[in-house]
Fold this sequence. Notes:
9 helices
Amino acid sequence: MSKREQGASKWAAALLALLSSVSYAGTAADCPFNIDQSAADTRRGTTDGLLFIRYALSLPSASPPATNATENPAFTSAQIDAHMSAHANALDIDGDGAFTRFDAQIIARYLLGFRGTALAGDLDAPQFAKRYGSAAFQQYIDSGCNSANDPADPRMAVWNAMNAQLALGTSAGIDQAKTYMTDTAVDSYTPALATIVADLPAIVASYSPIIPRMISGDYAEYWVSRPLLGSGTGERLVHIVTFIRTLDGNWRVDAM
Length: 256
């Protein structure tokens, strides 16, 4: 066993000791949390939660799970792999496009009964997460791990509304677009926007959808790209758009 695998095994063993001290059996609507496929369809932090963590740590699939880590002794590692493949999207709790140790931690905590800020208040979400914070994770799980139930991203709504006005290519459109910006952004961009007003429709049309990079409290960063002028190979320039939640509680574009 490699040093990495030894370290992962020790980490999982330490976590098992913690989980074993808690007897709560959680439920999670229609989320596919019964990874050991127990007949009673129970979902427990001390069994299923640990198995999700073992999987996220990439412990060798040939290693049989500990007998006290499952309520279904007949299940196999191959069945775990099949379960994870079949439900990969639903188990991506933070929405970053992959099942990671972070997702496994959230699932295990949920199954142990952690709710509210206790679910993820002390954890930093991965860089490309689309869901952030305990409230978003709990809502996702409570609603059955269905991304169709995700609330609309307020920052994307602000970005789209601002660009809809800029795409008009008029001075009036620019004035309306500025209502979606912070005072700092208005001061920084008003002169430049006035000089390119006729080009704004084409510029806005060239933008990619914005992608969350980091959200922390009242500050957020998103990626956006547009074609590199003169590139014959489809190269694109990537920019960071920053948002700030202002004192009135609304998100506004602060830099782009």
